Queue: 2 jobs
Job 1
Amino acid sequence: MPLPKVKIDVIREKCYLCGSCVAVCPKEAIIIENDEWMFFQEKCISCKFCVLACPVGALNAIPLEEE
Ligand code: SF4
Ligand code: SF4
């Protein structure tokens, strides 16, 4: 059974670009470049490790509609 698909959303006012989410993502679906947090849906396997790893609760997993 695949995990329910989610989109990872960042609350930019909370995120201080610590990189913890980048470090735990097994698929490099999050990167921080030029002081910008970026998410790549096509790489994400919806494990939510990033959401758990964020020390300030800046990430949310938004369920995606199943095709
Ligand atoms: S849910 Fe998993 S695969 Fe997707 S961005 Fe977060 S850590 Fe990476
Ligand atoms: S773990 Fe949280 S605060 Fe750190 S870079 Fe990721 S979203 Fe931002």
Job 2
Amino acid sequence: MKKKILLCLGICALAMASMAQVPPISHIDANNVRGTVLGDGTVFLNYQSDDDINPCPSWEVPMGSGKSTVFQKSLWIGGLDATDQLYLAAMRYGQTASVQGGGQDYWSGPLSTADATLDLMTALKFHRIWSLTRAEIEQFKANYNNAAYQIPEDILTWPAHGEGDYAQDLAPFVDVNGDGRYTPADGDYPDIKGDHCLFFIFNDNYKAHTESNGLPLGVEVHAMVYAFEAPNDEALDNTVFTHYKMINRSSRDYHDVYLGLWYDWDIGYAQDDYVGCDVRRNSFYAYNGYEIDGNGEPSSYGDNCPAQVTTILSTPENLGMTGFMYHNNDASVTGDPREAEEYYLLLRGCWKDGVHMQYGGNAYPGTPGCVGPECNYMYPGDSDPDNIGTNGIAPNEGYNTNGKYWTDEEAGNEPFDRRGLGMVGPFVFPAGSVKELDLAEITVWKNSSASAMERRGEFIDQIISFFNNLKK
Ligand SMILES: [Ca+2]
Ligand SMILES: [Ca+2]
Ligand SMILES: [Ca+2]
């Protein structure tokens, strides 16, 4: 009997430990978007799908259509310590063959304020995504002291405070009685954003990094993903916002820190897309390379293909979007990064051999169409009239004037399966300091008079204005 119990305990511990390897999953679904969100803040890849032929869409828009605009995404963070040693966390596909379940740089849970570690019990407690609607919060406020009212589980368990060496203040809450403690029985409630909100905490220091092989920074990230129900506001109805609060729990001061927002978009059918960026609007995006998406597959958009935009709304040091580049699905010098040093090169606008991007063509010096000078933004189109991306220098060969603009199409590329990286940096990230990043993911549709690409600026401007008003 005793043996059986011990065996069971052993199996349970194993099951719990392996559960902590697979991130928790939830969906944001307040409006026209049903987005898959994983608790390590990284990928949309839908683990719930067991059908390889008709996988669940990762970023389904319109909701219920079975069509999707994003396949994978991830937050990259890289920086140097006082001795210029590199520390880096980054995910792409979590495919490292040597590790069961794939490579991993992020895990659920906060880090100890004493030594930036995480114990198994705390990891398990935080292995979840809290999901609440504005309506649930309003119901709570009206009914919390009514005996017949059942307080929702995610309000009761809202992770406002860490225990022991973990930070006292974690998830934000409205402290109705002002005693500094989160107590729902006193009427305290989660301080959510939007009409539907997901909250979760992840870190890069639970274990060694098996995706990038970078040294862990000791960063703890509080993520809030939120959206608004807005049937009469086309831009807002197709937008999901994310707020990242990043805390350096290590004892190291980092410098030359860069953040990357990495995407593998698939606008419906994956093999016919283009990418680009909007320098003035701190945005980058993917769009369909042809007027008709795909070849009639149920998951392709046909003649109504959207553009999928990421707008960087606020950044450390007000840097805005400092770069954009794409990379290919191959092992070439312009292909996928494999090691931490290669990820860090991309974050600084350099290819894997250390050569900086240059203007024109596919931004690799010496290749067709690449005319220079050095640049920070690939395929800016007409969005950079002041040549910010080339440090004020007009690009060679008359580019960026008289209708001669650098785009994926102008470079002579065939539409294909694209990935892209929006960058923010450099900044300093001292021990114990907090940095914040806000972004919006916007799906832009055509209407009877204009294409999705033509409407892109109008949608982005509206979302930027909405966000700025929210903060007031
Ligand atoms: Ca309180
Ligand atoms: Ca497509
Ligand atoms: Ca793609």
